[in-house]
Amino acid sequence: MEIMAATELSTKLPKTDQEYLLTLETDVNGTFNTTYDNGILYEVPTGLVVILAMLYGAISILAVLGNGLVILVIVKNKRMQTVTNLFISNLAVADVITGMFAIPFQFQAALLQQWIFAHFLCSLAPFVLTMSVSVSVLTLTVIAVDRYFAVLHPLKQRFTKRTAVILVTAIWIICSTSSLPEALFRKVIPIYPKPLVFCTTDWPTHPPNFAKAYHLYLLFAQYLLPLVIISFAYLRIGCHIWMLENPGIAVNNQNDIRSRNKRKVVKMLLVVVCLFVICWMPLQTYNLLSEIWRPINEYKASIEKGQNKNRQNNTLGYIEHILDEL
């Protein structure tokens, strides 16, 4: 009976998940079927549910309200509508979208372990999440490049507002296009005999290794390349500002004020970049390992031979969902 249930479950899932479930069936000797009969794939302690609910709620509210205020201030104040602030407002828009559309769906999927919303949202939510992350990263990269030319090459022509609008539009087009696989290959799959519905990814088998290639592309485009560009830009800016702080160089009050303001802006952006690196490194590492080392996803089985061997992997999975929004 247990083998029949596991076999029926595997026939409803994409090939990659079928292979995983076949391995799971052998490893746990029927324990997975017992867990599935209860309607869950892994146990979630009540205390952890409360903590996660508070974290997700706080992150979602702060993301929407905080970034919404940034957008409102820039829109209402014409003096604030500079090229840099245009990029910052674009960053805020991406974060508002994440807070409104991505966070609630990610949380319910992790907590309830099934899909309870409309089927089209199964494709829309991951698409929006991937797109907003890509928009944020590319915008941070463009800001770093703009600051680089403003500080190190002040006499050269900088980005105009028209150029900034074109860049922002291009960023959204590029990110929307590159995120399409998340929408095209997501599907809702009913699991029988239990009335459970899962939102999963059905990656194409042709070309082979499409999923691995796509996730490696996201790793490169969302993290590695922007990290190199941003680090180079701010390293050069930091060195340049350090050289300008030579005490033997006399400056008047006006230039001193401008220099302090410029340093404040650079420090603020540098803090944003450092937080981005720290928060996204664990997730990007996990995503890479999930493609090249399948056993890291064994947290999907809550009990293996009567022992909770996967608790650390569970924690990593929860951290992933939280870091998605940071």
From TrEMBL:
As for subcellular location, the record says: Membrane
Q: Enumerate the PROSITE patterns for this protein.
A: G_PROTEIN_RECEP_F1_1, G_PROTEIN_RECEP_F1_2
The record's GO molecular-function terms, alphabetically, read: neuropeptide Y receptor activity
- Record membrane topology: Multi-pass membrane protein
Tell me the keywords, alphabetical order: G-protein coupled receptor, Membrane, Receptor, Transducer, Transmembrane, Transmembrane helix
The cross-references to InterPro entries, in alphabetical order and at most eight, read: GPCR_Rhodpsn, GPCR_Rhodpsn_7TM, NPY_rcpt
The regions listed as transmembrane in this protein's record are 48-75, 87-109, 115-143, 164-185, 214-235, 265-283
Q: Assign the protein's first listed, main location to one coarse class.
A: membrane
Among SUPFAM superfamilies, the record links this protein to: Family A G protein-coupled receptor-like
**Record's keyword annotation contains Transmembrane:** yes
Q: Name one GO cellular component term.
A: plasma membrane
All copies of domain G-protein coupled receptors family 1 profile, residue ranges: 66-326
Presence of the UniProt keyword 4Fe-4S in the record: no
The cross-references to Pfam families, in alphabetical order and at most eight, read: 7tm_1 (PF00001)
The family this protein is said to belong to: Belongs to the G-protein coupled receptor 1 family.
Q: What is this protein called?
A: Neuropeptide Y receptor type 2-like isoform X2
Which species is this UniProt entry from? Octopus sinensis (East Asian common octopus)
